[in-house]
Structures are given as C-alpha cells and as structure tokens.
C-alpha cells in the first residue's frame, strides 16, 4: 500500500502525478529547486511543501540528466523505501544511476506517455494519465517490492502499466514520441516566414500536425540529448522517405516520361500513411474500430457545445473523439463527432431532427 509520496519537480507531469495521487487518497509532498513553480503547485493544491518527511515512494519528475544525482541524494538520506522517475528516456538514466552509485534494488524507472503542449503546474490535470500507457523499466537487480510499489503508483494515477527493458523503450519512444515532436517543430518552423494570406487559409490539418510544436523547448532539448542515438536512426529513415518523395514530386513538376512512375510513388506514400495510421490503437489500447465522422455546425455561443454533447448522449452514442474547427471571421465552427461507423448515420439523423445543421 502507498500512503505517502514525495514528488520532486512540479512541472506538468510532476504536478499531474501529485493531483492524481491526491485524488486517490495518497498524501503528497512536493519539492522543487525552483521556488516559483513549487509555490504555485502548493497553492493549487497539488500537495504539501516537503520539509524532510519520509515517504513510501519518491517520484523524480526532473529532466533525464538530473534523475541520477537526485536519486543518489535522496537515497543517501533514506527518504523513501522505493524510488522512480518519469523521464522519457531510460537507458541513459540507468547508466547514470549506476555510475553515480545509486542503489538500483529499490529503483524502478518509469515513463508515463502523456502530456500536453502546455507546461508548468498550472497546466497539470488529475486525469492526465487516465488510460494512458505508463512504462516501467526495472533494473535486473530491482526487488519485487519496488516494482510492486511503482506499479501501484501508476495504477493509482489510473494509467495502463506496460513493462519493457530500457533499450526497447528508448527505440519505441523515438518513433512514437520524439520523431513526431521534431517533425511538428520542423513543419511549424516553415510558418515563420509565411505570408499572412497563406496563414489565413490554414485549416484543421495544419493545426493538428503542428499542435505539439508549442511544447516546452528546453524540456525537449534534454529529451533529444538523452535519446540521441535512437532519434538519429528514426530521423535518418524519415529523411530517406522524404528524399524519395521529394524526388517523385520533382519528376511530376518536370513532366515527361517519369510522371506515371512518380504518381505511383506518391500514391504508395499516401497508402502507406493510411495503413500506418490504421494501426494506431484506439481507446484503452485496443484496436481502433471503424470510425465515422458526423460534422455539425455549432454557433460560438455559451452552452452550445454542451447542448450538442447532451443530444449526442441522449442518442445513446459514445464519442470516440471530438475535433473543433473554428470558421475564420465567423461566430461559428464545425464540431466533427467521431463515432463508431455503425452509429454515424443514425446519429446524424437524430441530430438533424433535434435542429442541428449536420453537414453531409
């Protein structure tokens, strides 16, 4: 049983861990080298300011290169029976911990794969980890009790626990997390010099693909440095594919005999993208069902979205996702309701009957 936890680091993830654990009935203590976020986290009710109390588990919510020094220092004081971290890279953290002389018998690495493009304790949410994967990386010498403690902590945050070794974890997150961040940043960087009239044409697709480009810069510098080898391999593979696509589009632009082959290469690229996208799991980590989209025009008035969602609930349909796209210069937008494909037509009919303008 976990009755008390110390969270070191009160950024988005650390503060969200504190909120989730407090909701689960755990007493949470907070510490941070930076006084401002610590004070704000305490004020927001994330936890109590730590003054040296012993706890069941210490959570190191600090950058990857700061985990090992913090772990060694806390273990020297006997602060907790079990220690874990939330860093997004694992092999380097374990290597640094060994070099620093940490006791790995009571340490289990952790990585909750959840976040937001906003940072700091003000952006923290108690439900940030709900149904999200939380990877546990236990050193070979880790005691069963330590693993049980960290598993209990992740489950108290309502996360879905996944056990992996450090190398497999780092290779996986390079593909599914670190590469998308860098691609989004590269794409968003192209917008800096774009003319205003071009930006005025931007739709939801551009917003979706660049959303995470708003993430904290210094946080990601540390992540890239900590997983550089695996990220390099993913960037090289992505660059090779991009180079091939660039060459195909170049042949289209030039015209001539190579157009047919170039079109087939573009078609294959798009088809591979659809096939890869279809492999992503849906809610609760299970395969995503065939999805339908019901687009509804929603006025930009207080309570309208809530009224729409109420009508969806009364229709007995469970939403898989909701995407809002605001109409430029108009007080309305489009709410794209993602529902099981088998329910889409019936939901559209019910919403039209309730007076909603449903686009076909």
Give a description of the structure.
- The chain is of the alpha/beta class.
- Helices cover 48% and strands 18% of the residues.
- It has 13 helices and eleven strands.
- It has helices spanning 12-23, 35-43, 64-76, 91-100, 144-156, 166-189, 196-199, 204-210, 217-226, 228-254, 259-278, 304-314, 341-353, and strands at 4-8, 27-31, 48-49, 55-60, 80-85, 107-112, 133-137, 160-163, 291-299, 321-326, 332-340.
- The strands form two sheets. It has an eight-stranded mixed β-sheet with strand order 3-2-1-4-5-6-7-8, with helices on both faces.
- The chain is globular.
- The mean pLDDT is 91.
| Structural class based on helices, strands and sheet pairing | alpha/beta
Number of helices: 13
Report, as a whole number of angstroms, the end-to-end distance: 53 Å
Order of helices and strands: EHEHEEHEHEEHEHHHHHHEHEEH
Major beta sheet, specifics?
A: 8 strands, mixed
**What is the radius of gyration computed over CA atoms, rounded to a whole number of angstroms?**
24 Å
**Could you tell me the number of beta strands?**
11
Helix content: 40-55%
**Mean pLDDT across residues:** 91
Q: Provide the β-strand percentage band.
A: 15-25%
Shape: globular
Unreliable runs, pLDDT <50, ≥5 residues?
Answer: none
Instruction: Identify the strand order in the major beta sheet.
Output: 3-2-1-4-5-6-7-8
Please give a handful of descriptors for the protein shown.
single chain; 360 residues; alpha/beta; eight-stranded mixed sheet; three-stranded antiparallel sheet; 11 strands; 18% strand
List the helices and strands and how they pair.
Layout: E1 4-8, H1 12-23, E2 27-31, H2 35-43, E3 48-49, E4 55-60, H3 64-76, E5 80-85, H4 91-100, E6 107-112, E7 133-137, H5 144-156, E8 160-163, H6 166-189, H7 196-199, H8 204-210, H9 217-226, H10 228-254, H11 259-278, E9 291-299, H12 304-314, E10 321-326, E11 332-340, H13 341-353
Parallel strand pairs: 1-2, 1-4, 2-3, 4-5, 5-6, 7-8
Antiparallel strand pairs: 6-7, 9-11, 10-11
């Amino acid at each position: 049983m976990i009755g008390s936890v110390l969270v070191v680091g009160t950024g988005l993830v650390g503060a969200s861990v504190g909120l989730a654990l407090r909701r689960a009935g755990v007493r949470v203590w907070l510490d941070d080298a930076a006084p401002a976020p610590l004070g704000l986290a305490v004020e927001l009710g994330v936890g109590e300011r730590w003054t040296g109390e012993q706890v069941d588990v210490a959570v190191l919510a600090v950058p990857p290169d700061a985990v090992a020094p913090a772990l060694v220092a806390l273990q020297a004081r006997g602060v907790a029976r079990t220690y874990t971290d939330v860093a997004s890279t694992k092999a380097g953290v374990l290597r640094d911990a060994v070099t620093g002389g940490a006791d790995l018998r009571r340490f289990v690495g952790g990585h909750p794969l959840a976040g937001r493009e906003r940072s700091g304790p003000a952006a923290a949410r108690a439900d940030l980890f709900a149904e999200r994967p939380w990877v546990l990386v236990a050193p070979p010498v880790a005691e069963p009790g330590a693993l049980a403690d960290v598993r209990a902590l992740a489950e108290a945050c309502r996360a879905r626990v996944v056990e992996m070794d450090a190398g497999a974890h780092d290779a996986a997150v390079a593909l599914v997390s670190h590469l998308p961040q860098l691609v989004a940043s590269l794409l968003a960087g192209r917008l800096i010099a774009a003319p205003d009239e071009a930006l005025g044409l931007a739709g939801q697709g551009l917003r979706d693909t660049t959303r995470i480009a708003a993430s904290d810069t210094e946080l990601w510098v540390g992540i890239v440095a900590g997983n550089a080898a695996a990220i390099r391999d993913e960037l090289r593979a992505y660059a090779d594919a991009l180079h091939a696509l660039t060459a195909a589009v170049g042949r289209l632009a030039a015209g001539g005999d190579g157009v047919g082959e170039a079109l087939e290469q573009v078609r294959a690229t798009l088809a591979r993208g659809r096939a890869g996208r279809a492999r992503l799991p849906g809610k609760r980590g299970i395969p995503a069902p065939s999805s339908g989209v019901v687009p509804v025009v929603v006025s930009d008035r207080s309570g309208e979205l809530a009224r729409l969602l109420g009508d969806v609930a009364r229709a007995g349909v469970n939403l898989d996702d909701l995407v809002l796209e605001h109409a430029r210069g108009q007080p309305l937008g489009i709410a794209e309701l993602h529902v099981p494909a088998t329910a889409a037509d019936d939901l559209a009919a019910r919403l039209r009957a309730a007076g909603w303008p449903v686009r076909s």
